[in-house]
Amino acid sequence: MFETVTPPEPDKIIRLMGMFAADTRTGKVDLGVGVYRSPEGKTPVMAAVKQAEERIWTAQDSKSYVGLRGDLGYLDAMRHLILGQSVPADRVAGAGTPGGTGAVRQVLETVHRLAPSATVWISDPTWPNHPAIIDHLGQKRQSYRYYDAATGGIDRTGMMADLARVGRGDLILLHGCCHNPTGADLLLDDWQEVAALCARTGAIPFVDMAYQGFGLGLEEDAAGVRLLAATLPEVLIAASCSKNFGLYRERVGAVLIVTTGKAAAEGVLAGMNRQNFAFPPDHGARVVQEILGDETLGALWRGELDGMRRTMEGNRRALAEALREETGSDRFGFLAAHRGMFSLIGATSTQVDRLREVHGIYLVGDGRMNVAGLTPDTIPRVAQALAEVLA
């Protein structure tokens, strides 16, 4: 069966991970793979997670199936975390998924089955797996202008001009916060403009919420999606706990649907889970539920999350300042204003290759940089290399 098959092109991030692992240089720096790293360069298990896992290990007496939509307590905790009091609980359907990627896939496949003619509008640029999943499903897609490389900000005029062409029932895929790969986030006024456009056109917002708490804070990062939920009849949400709980390998995700047809939506989500993977993973979801449902663990987790955000903010400021000193200009000042783990550094693929081959600094081919991969020790050297290669 496989003798004549041409293997697909490896995912560029997975390929980069392999190249980094094979590099024997001691001074190599990984700014490509999207994981948080502490100032010591480690990806730690959060203390709140460890304590929650210990409690679960002590108390749990069965590994039997929970339900096709996962644990309802976990889903309720995720609803409250993301949507707060913006919409009544009886308008929100939910289902657990294997990670945020699983949630994105479930939303897109559900829409494709229910509304096969719908077009999915994605930002230019966006996370590469967005168009990959859309294309795999055979959905129609269009791009809308988003990032202004000249300013390091958002092309708001271009974005709204492109989205003026959306049709009723089309999806507008939005990054809830910490836009990947640019780091340039919508302001609340922008979210209001998108809400008004959806109300006028009948388009449906689809929010990918992968980094809540990494931008300005848990509540601030959810302000946009909460505005949509409070304003519109239908909002689709794909959520991930990989980053803000550090549960990468546990694959903890959820689909939330704001709708007036909750029971029907829950039935559809349960059916989609059954067909794709049956029961969603429970361990990581149970950890999240334990943390969010306990005042002491919740406070510990919020403190750790705040510390992670401050580390990334500090890395941004330090790198922008180091680049200012190296270049004698404020060309890279936008880095300090971006949010979350990622920014586009403005490098060509040739320059990215040179950074890797000459300096041992690993970026994704489009110049996406994970600022969480920086440490106080590596920032001066990274700034020097960037200034030299991007001159």
Question: How would you summarize what this structure contains?
Answer:
46% of the residues lie in helices and 15% in strands. It has 391 residues and is α/β, with parallel strands linked by helices.
CATH architecture descriptor text of the largest domain: 3-Layer(aba) Sandwich
| Strand ordering within the main sheet | 2-10-9-8-7-3-4
Quaternary form: single chain
- Roughly how much helix do the residues carry, as a percent range? 40-55%
State the low-pLDDT regions, or none.
Answer: none
Could you name the CATH homologous superfamily of the largest domain?
Type I PLP-dependent aspartate aminotransferase-like (Major domain)
The computed structural class is alpha/beta
Label the overall shape.
globular
* CATH fold naming of the largest domain: Aspartate Aminotransferase, domain 2
What does this structure look like?
With 391 residues, this protein is of the alpha/beta class. The chain folds into two domains: 12-44 and 303-389, Alpha-Beta Complex (Aspartate Aminotransferase, domain 1); 65-293, Aspartate Aminotransferase, domain 2, CATH 3.40.640. Helix content is 46%, strand content 15%. It has 15 helices and 13 strands. The protein has helices at 12-22, 47-59, 72-83, 99-114, 129-137, 156-163, 188-201, 218-221, 223-231, 262-276, 283-292, 295-327, 334-337, 349-359, 379-389; strands at 29-30, 92-98, 119-124, 140-145, 147-148, 153-154, 171-175, 204-209, 235-240, 252-258, 342-344, 361-362, 368-370. The strands form four sheets. It has a seven-stranded mixed β-sheet, with helices on both faces. Helix 4 (99-114) runs parallel beside helix 5, helix 12 (295-327) crosses helix 15 (379-389) and helix 14 packs across helix 15. The longest helix has 33 residues, at 295-327. The chain is globular, with a radius of gyration of 21 Å. The protein starts with 11 loop residues before the first helix and ends with a helix.
